[in-house]
Please model this.
Amino acid sequence: MRHRSAVLLMLLVTLLWSSAGAVSRHLDSARGFEVTFWRSAFNALALTLLLPMLRGRDYWREALPRLRRSPAVLGSGLCWAVMYTAFMLALTMTGVANVLVTMALGPLLTALFARVFLRQRLAPRTWVAIWIASAGIAWMFASEMRAGAHAWLGMGVALAVPVAAASNWTLLQARAGDGATDLLPAVWLGAMLSALATLPLAWPFAASGHDLLLLAGLGVFQLAVPCLIVVRLTRVLPAAEVALLALMEVLLGVLWAWLIAGEAPSPAALLGGVMVLAALIGNELLGAWRRPAAPTSGEMSL
Model:
């Protein structure tokens, strides 16, 4: 896969990911842990059916024994579970912009993790892009924090998402060249762990048929499909670039919540979003202009 194709696919992934906030605002009666349970359960069901379609009908018979013996798959599965669970819980506790702004700390954390654990060097322009994006996020964060203690709690839960995401992208990158390790089951494992962990707290169920339809759509098209794509993309794109491109979810998610759910962001959120978008586009344009035909393996040429 060419780099440009991988970038376009990653932008499609962020488009699918960004739908969660707006869709969750149209639920009738499902709240809190029940929202997380149903989304994760539908995600696990979709992956149970999709993976054999992609890898052959005997996929699970061969994959499950390897799954139990692979620390990388278990670690990645735990990261996915934290991401799935914390994200939806945070959305039920605070505004969409608050959650997505907090998640946008992911690129900085991913770059730091890749530098510490993978010994990967980042191009100077990527560090500049990360710090500009982080400054925009900090501006948004300071404004949204005036909403009160409840916003603090929701954003505290949301903070688990970029930490788990940075850990996951770094782990996926470390295993990207290892053809013997199939990390696709980790996406399924994360969904199963998230559903099992939230099931006792979700009972008794209150979701309507309308809620179940929306949550099924989130489980399949907002989680299962894009998460399978992003695992494949980590074989082409460096971890820090995956995390930086994922910032588009922040802007799109706030936009959809504004246009579809009527949840308007503050002026500070809009200004911060412009800074994030400028950093993302600038990094990609400079990368396309300066990228050599064969990047050196020792440096992340983003």
About this structure: Residues 3-300 form one domain. The longest strand covers residues 121-122.
